[in-house]
Write a structure and sequence with these properties.
heterodimer, A: alpha/beta, Rossmann fold, six-stranded mixed beta sheet, four-stranded antiparallel beta sheet, 7 helices, 35% helix, B: mainly alpha, MetI-like fold, 86% helix, 0% strand
Chain lengths: 262, 253
């Protein structure tokens, strides 16, 4: 697998170097193209900061971030992002929310009007794959939390980004809805094979979805453990009760226990 | 339940007037101290031609001042909210300016423009300008950081973020400020007419009180209050029409 994302000895402090305990310290990792990687760790450990560094929204104090062979020095375009909060625009319908990236992104905005019919068809198809068929013209407030998050996933993928950054996207959902959305995400990823970095503090979620899991220590965030997940795909809820799955979650849990105690 | 909520403002208003009427009669309050509502309404009928003429004048002066405040307030609010630099540069100035009692600047306006319509328009403008600027700027400046990140990571231009997200998002704040601003605009106009006017409700009430026709003063106050409530209601309706999503979202959560 070719390296798509490389972080080399990244250190980052909010408010600039030397002002506070670094959010991230000496973090290095390599992610292959099309790989699904999860970052787990206690809250406030700088996992989200790593996402911002990868996407170029925030510069590191030291170290180098490279994506697709190029050093990240300004916000990357063609990245999809989704957060714990769905942040849909309340005055737009679900469909219009999903179309937003195509209206504003550098590579699509010029041709948006011309290709509108094509884009609308693509958005409808994507909404259908996540189970939102029939809700295209509903306002976000008419959707449940899980449905809003599905729409948010569609918005993050409509422009076919090479890289999807997910910052605890399912954290605010109830357990059943969350597990449903694992399957939605797994299916989308298997169909499209974009690269994913998923930040989460749910170890089962990490093992269920990722090819590789990194454990990040509490602040200052360091990468303390790396664990490949070789379980066959597609993973199913049934497989979460297999011994292999349970052992992996258990091993990660032990490492989290260590970093929290440290 | 719903009909109770709809009836409540009418019942409360009627109750206040009945209470006021009862107090005046019970304690035989002289009408040159506090006229009863019935006396104020009698004065309203008696002096209707003069009241109507002056009320209409006050009304359009207020609307012109308010209209200026909407145009300039919206423009300055957008500039202020869109740029952190402009925001920090002019916000203290705006607060300082808003702290100045507008009655204090009327004499200056009279020196510049003479007695009459222009000082009244400008007073209505200056008093209703501030809430519009502040609300629009707040609506723009409080964009969720996650949403900003989503847009920046798409390579969105500032102008796109402003047009697609910032402005629609600040519209509920804008319409909310209009309701406040229109009532303040009436205050501004009447202040100016009272201090330095030759027409309008302020001028009428000043003339009436200087000849102890206090019921006429109260008739004037009632007319101003009714105009204020009416305009408020109109803008509340416009708000529901244009940014109903902001209300529907709140009702379900």
């Amino acid at each position: 697998m070719t390296a798509f994302i490389v972080l080399e000895r990244i250190t980052m402090t909010y408010g600039g170097a030397g002002t506070d305990t670094p959010a991230v310290e000496d973090a290095s990792l390599t992610i292959g193209r099309g790989e699904f990687v999860a970052l787990v760790g206690p809250s406030g450990c700088g996992k989200s900061s790593l996402l911002k560094i990868v996407s170029g929204l925030m510069p590191p104090d030291s170290g180098i971030a490279r994506v697709d062979g190029e050093t990240v020095s300004r916000p990357l375009t063609m990245v999809g992002m989704a957060f714990q909060n769905a942040t849909l625009l309340p005055w737009r319908t679900t469909l219009e929310n999903v179309l937003l990236p195509l209206e504003v992104s550098r590579s699509h905005r010029g041709s948006f009007r011309r290709k509108r019919a094509e884009h609308v068809a693509a958005a409808r198809a994507l909404l259908k794959t996540v189970g939102l068929e029939g809700y295209e013209d509903h306002a976000p407030y008419e959707l449940s939390g899980g449905m809003q998050q599905r729409a948010s996933l569609c918005r993050s993928l409509i422009h076919a980004p090479d890289l999807l950054l997910l910052d605890e996207p399912f954290a605010a959902l109830d357990a059943f809805t969350r597990e449903e959305l694992w399957d939605v995400l797994q299916e989308l990823w298997q169909a499209r094979k974009f690269t994913v970095i998923l930040v989460t503090h749910d170890l089962r979620e990490a093992v269920y979805l990722a090819d590789r899991v990194y454990v990040v220590s509490k602040r200052p965030g360091r990468i303390v453990y790396e664990r490949p997940v070789a379980l066959p795909r597609p993973r199913t809820l049934e497989s979460t009760f297999d011994q292999d799955f349970i052992d992996l979650v258990h091993a990660l849990r032990d490492h989290i226990g260590e970093v929290r105690a440290a | 339940m719903i009909s109770g909520v709809k009836l409540a403002p009418w019942l409360a208003t009627i109750g206040l007037f009945l209470f006021w009427e009862a107090v005046c009669r019970l304690f035989s309050v002289p009408e040159f101290i506090l006229p009863a509502p019935s006396q104020a309404i009698a004065a309203l009928i008696q002096y209707w031609p003069a009241i109507w003429q002056n009320a209409f004048y006050t009304f359009w002066v207020t609307l012109v001042g308010f209209g200026l405040a909407v145009v300039f307030g919206l423009a300055l609010g957008l500039v202020t909210g869109a740029s952190a630099l402009v925001y920090s540069a002019i916000y203290p100035m705006l607060v300082g300016f808003n702290s100045i009692p507008k009655v204090a600047i009327v004499p200056v306006l009279v020196v510049w423009f003479g007695i009459g319509t222009i000082p009244a328009i400008l007073t209505a403008f200056t008093i209703s300008f501030f809430p519009i600027v502040v609300n629009v700027a707040t609506g723009l400046a409080t964009l969720e950081p996650e949403l900003r990140d989503v847009l920046r990571s798409l390579g969105a231009r500032k102008i796109d973020i402003l047009l697609k997200v910032g402005i629609p998002r600040s519209m509920p704040y804008f319409f909310a400020s209009l309701k406040v601003a229109i009532t303040l605009a009436f205050v501004g106009t009447v202040i100016s007419e009272t201090v330095a006017g030759n027409a309008g409700m302020g001028h009428l009430m000043l003339t009436a009180s200087s000849s102890f026709r206090v019921p006429l003063v109260f008739a004037g106050l009632l007319v101003i209050a009714v105009m204020g409530v009416g305009m408020y209601a109109i803008f509340a309706l416009v708000e529901r029409r244009w940014v109903g999503w902001a209300f529907r979202g709140a009702e379900t959560s």
